[in-house]
Write a structure and sequence with these properties.
Blueprint lengths: L1 E3 L9 E7 L2 E6 L3 E6 L6 E2 L6
Antiparallel strand pairs: 1-2, 1-5, 2-3, 3-4
């Protein structure tokens, strides 16, 4: 799933790597792997861009 963090647009879009409860690991284009606490931060799901 592709996501972005609205509060950090400079990170670019990211791909979810794993989900464990409210902990989500996302690999962002410009920030690398980041552990997100979904209980505190809302990620925006991007539409599927496959053609």
């Amino acid at each position: 799933m592709r996501v972005r963090l609205p509060s950090r647009p400079d990170w670019g879009s990211g791909q979810v790597q794993s989900v464990a409860g409210s902990r989500i690991t996302v690999n962002f284009e410009h920030a690398g792997k980041v552990l997100i606490n979904a209980a505190v931060v809302d990620l925006e799901i991007l539409e599927d861009d496959r053609r």
